[in-house]
Design goal:
The chain is an alpha+beta fold. Helix content is about 45%, strand content about 15%. It has a three-stranded antiparallel beta sheet with strand order 1-3-2, with no helix packed on it.
Length: about 70
Amino acid sequence: ILRNPTEEKYRSIKTTKQSYLNSIGSTKTAEQFLEAVGFKKSGEWITLPYNIDPVVIYLAKSSLESVKEL
């Protein structure tokens, strides 16, 4: 999203895809994190609206990276 903010394919995730179910969809906390960042769930999709400030995405990414280093 940070590199290609206007490309829809980077802003939406199909929640029924196996890769989603095996990673993000396997924990409620991960979904809650995406929702806290600004993603909205609608049917089979979770999408980041265009009105979300890119700084929020950068901070979310940085937070995940810092936790990963622990």
